Amino acid sequence: MRIVPKLPHRKVRDGLDVASVGIEMALSVIVGYFVGRWFDQTFDMAPWGSVIWLFGGFGAAVKALLRATRTARRITTKPSAASEDVQAALVASSWAASHREPRRPRPQVEERYAR
Questions:
Q1: Residue 25: Cβ within 10 Å count
Q2: Crossing angle of helices 48-76 and 8-19, rounded to 10°
Q3: In what helix (H) or strand (E) does residue 14 lie, and over which residues does it extend?
Q4: What is the average per-residue pLDDT within 57-66?
Q5: What are the residues whose beta carbons fall under 8 Å from the beta carbon of 45, sequence distance 6 or more?
Q6: N-terminal to C-terminal alpha carbon distance within the chain
Q7: What's the rounded Cα separation, in Å, for the pair 100 and 67?
Q8: Does residue 81 surpass a pLDDT of 90?
Q9: Domain extent for 32
Q10: How many domains are there within the chain?
Q11: Hey, is 107 helix, strand or coil?
């Protein structure tokens, strides 16, 4: 039982997103280097601007790689029959919980401890 149908264009978009991770990594490092070089020339802080912004570019590249890995893992793993059974049970239990009789009100503190 599938609760939310997957659309085919989502798979294509996810596949292209994973395929473009190499370009994204290279561009983030290159942009980081050139922004750092501009900082070095503008503020006369060579080589620290290049070094700091280059590390920022490497950080952005690692973040892109982790995001692409997460997307690829989501694409390649198929839900098992057990997980579909669990989803069906959750739907049934949420329906049952919303359609049960209302609870009785709790007794006041004085009524609970009065003997």
A1: 19
A2: 150
A3: helix 8-19
A4: 93
A5: 39
A6: 54
A7: 42
A8: no
A9: 8-100
A10: 1
A11: coil
**How far apart (Å, rounded) are the C-alpha atoms in residues 39 and 54?**
12
Nearest Cα to 52, choosing from 63, 39, 62, 61? 39
Average pLDDT, stretch 66-85?
Answer: 73
Residue 94 and residue 40: Cα distance in Å, rounded? 60
Residue with token string 């919980």: 97
Q: Which residue has the higher pLDDT, 42 or 17?
A: 42
What is the mean predicted confidence (pLDDT) over 64-90? 74
Does residue 108 fall inside a structural domain? no
Is residue 39 a part of any domain in this protein? Answer: yes
**Residue 33 is assigned to a structural domain of this protein:** yes
Q: Phi and psi (nearest 5°) for 37?
A: -65, -40
Structure tokens at 51: 């070094």
User: pTM for this one?
Assistant: 0.56
Q: What whole-number percentage of the chain has pLDDT above 90?
A: 33
In this structure, is residue 113 part of a structural domain?
A: no
Side chain identity, residue 10: R
